[in-house]
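[job 4471] stage=fold_predict status=RUNNING
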Amino acid sequence: MSDASTLPSPEGLPVLGHGMAFSRNPVEAMERWAAHGDIVRLQFVGEPMYMVTGPEHIERILVDEQEAFTIGPRQRTTFQGVEDDAMTTATGDRWKRLRRAAHPAFTRDRIHQYGDRMAAVTARFVDEWADGEAVDLHDEMRRLTVQILGETLLDADLRGREDVVMDAADALVARTNFRRPGLLLPDWVPTPTDYRFRRAVERLDAFVDDLLAERRASAPEREDVCSVLLDAHQRGDLSMDEVRENVVAFLLAGHESPAGALTRVWYLLDDHPDAAAAVRREAERVVDGGRPTAADADDLERTRHAVQEALRLYPPTTGVNRQATEPVTVGGHEFDAGAQFMIPQWVPHRDERYWDDPETFDPSRWTRDADRPEYAYFPFSGGPRRCIGADFARQELTLALATMAGRVELDVTASGPLTFVPSVQLRPEPDITATVRR
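[job 4471] inference complete, writing structure tokens
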């Protein structure tokens, strides 16, 4: 057993430590640091941080001894001012209460019920594209996923109202950009980015309040997340602030991550025509009629594997943060209470110890048995705090991709190499354009 101070520490800068390299290019920095070991000691402006990339250590933190850890302060700071009363930032008994209240909307049976609508919304959306039209792929995928959320989780038609959600997500990404000059300033120092963020959040809060007021006034029997949360409020389990901010959290994360995944899977399929052809042939073979249904999801194997592979190469977020609530031992090293851990999916997802030819997009790898640790792949985190919408997102991505592949071909071009905004979300930096071919 050894002290955490004995862990390897990559070379950093005086005072700034490893923060500068991380802000310039997080994924490149994390790959370089991981070469020093499965647990490395980093320094961010005087604050120690331990990066964990070994799957067995990740599982220990997220699953086996999860009660000895909570979300890190960086996660709470990230969503401060927008999701203060959501499960995203809650801890302890409060988090358990919020999670229990939302769970009925995300059971396996309930998610299956959303499937037909997911495909129907996608078909309607894609049918509005003109043959030969060039679209901003990421922007269009974001509009699509907002509409899917509206009609499944909120039972509301959000067509023409997507911008209020997208603007708030843009403001959040801008505020959490690791390169932002004002990021190190005290919270009380106003910046244009902070002002834009507050205005966008105010508009989104008002938008969600209006949706909730409409729902409470109509009060029909429904089974979406909005109704589940309002029922919990009626029972006294949730405050209205908690209802609103959890809906806000679902709208922000629930459109951004799937939209990014759809953008990247189309980008990858365009570069791998054999895989794209396999997805199209499967859509033609499995789908009986104009679009897939929830019943088709299990048979869309190649489509599902393309999605899994895209999530392996390009996970939705920069990583997962945890903080020890008591002294813990991980990987034979002792850590004090308060120790902070950064757990990036990017590194184990591309580790050649667990993946053959890890940098290559190869959906067929998911058809082969592989002896790899479970936490060599965890795009939606893991353990009790695994993303509550993970199964929803997987079904959505599979059905949306199959629906699109059965109706259009997309010729994808990017304005540069696929790099990412250094922020909480791995959002593509270059412009990605898709030309529609029917």
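[job 4471] summary: The domain at 2-437 is CATH 1.10.630.10 (Cytochrome p450).
[job 4471] exit 0
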